[in-house]
Design goal:
Length: 65
Amino acid sequence: MLSSTISRNRKSEQNHEIWEHLKQAIADCSGFKQWQSRQTKDHDFSPFEQQVRCYLRETLETLAY
């Protein structure tokens, strides 16, 4: 049981690390910067992570069409 808990914790830490790297890569891309510049003032005060999630959601919705 302890090893499964350790395994889950390690996987969670790895997922967190991957997400942090992904957010940084997205922030550095020109598409995200253009998207940010087109957003309304409401998004200006959103936390960075919320902006990234919104950008990803809108991008994936666009790609789905």
